[in-house]
Every structure is written in structure tokens, then in C-alpha cells.
């Protein structure tokens, strides 16, 4: 076999292994608890982390397939970069709209690092918001505009100062 033919065969074999590895099926029940939250099974259904008590009374976590279908992103496990950028936690078993009461959380979710690069997390919170009658895109736009307005005030020196106390006058001499 000619050296170029051997190289071609080795290259073909290596590529086929790579393709097989990237096409691995994501099954929620096979995921470890630390990868479950923010994962989507190959079937297109979201994975959810469930907490339960074991025989010893300790809390265990298992990954289960939910009934929530995600149209895109099937077979997706969210990256650590997105989890960190968006300010979410993998050990979350439930997600609530109460998180939007925190301006710090909303700022992280609306940050370009999260909003523009982490469609799985954004889609999850868009759906959560829609169920609560809130629009995440509108919330992020409002936050961006408020931030710009604050920067404009600070950079132009248009910020008003708070109330100023009147200078203290010397007390009048006491007359007896």
C-alpha cells in the first residue's frame, strides 16, 4: 500500500470516529446530575433534575426526560460558559419566574455573553416569561435603554446632586 493511501485510510478512520462521537445520542436518564439541567435529549425533550429521598433518607438527584419539547437544539447539553454567563445553576431542580425580581440575574441573562450566545437558556426563560405574561426580549431592551440613559447622564455631567444641607450658622449668643 502506498504511503499516501495509508495516510488517506488513517485520515478516513479518524474522521469516522469523530463523526460517531459527535452523533452520540443524548438520553436524559443517562446523564449525570451535573449535566442534566439545561440539557435537551436527542428526542427534543428537555431534561429535568429531580430530587428524591433514597432508602437512607438522603437526597439524591436523577435526570429525567420531561414532556417539554424544544423545536431546535435536540441533543444539546449546555456549556459551562453559558451556565456561568447567564448566572444559572446546574443543580437547579425547578426554575421560577421569581428570578426576574433580581436585577442582577436579569442583567446576566440579558448580557450579550448570555443573550446572544446561549439560545437554549434564553429559549427556556422566554417560555417561562411567556407563561407569566412577561416578555424577556422587552425586559432586556428596557434594561439596555435604562443602562444607556444612566451612562449618558453620568458622562454628560447632567446628574443632579442630592439635597444639600444649609450651612450651619453660628448660634446666637445667649442673652440673660
From TrEMBL:
The keyword Signal applies. Residues 1-24 form the signal peptide. The keyword Signal applies. Keywords: Signal. InterPro entries: PAR1 (IPR009489). It comes from the Eukaryota. This is PAR1 protein.
